Amino acid sequence: MSVHTFLEEYDFSGKTIIPFVTHGTGGLSNTINDLTNSLDETVTILEPIGIYRLDVDDSQPAIKQWLTSLDI
Which one in 21, 27, 63, 71 has a CA-CA gap of 20 to 30 Å to 55? Predict the structure, then answer.
């Protein structure tokens, strides 16, 4: 709910969102769907990454690869 409140309070028109999350077991769940529904059509949502909590310590290579794939 706190993310929804944040999205409602700021104007993200024309902005790019790069979702990333650490999680226990739910992964990204409905995150991208929820973001898409909460933001207007001028917002670009790039490919997300979800890192499982037990993989955080060894996640640097995956994160670097993800960042490179975003081509930003």
Answer: 71
Q: Which residues contact 50 (CB under 8 A, 6 or more apart)?
A: 20, 21, 22, 23, 27, 28
Q: How many residues does the chain have?
A: 72
Whole-number pLDDT of residue 1:
75
pLDDT tens per residue, range 8-60: 899 999 999 999 999 998 888 888 999 999 999 999 999 999 999 999 999 99
Q: What is the DSSP string of 22-71?
A: EESS-TTTTHHHHHHHHS-TT-EEPPPEEEEGGGGGG-HHHHHHHHHHHT
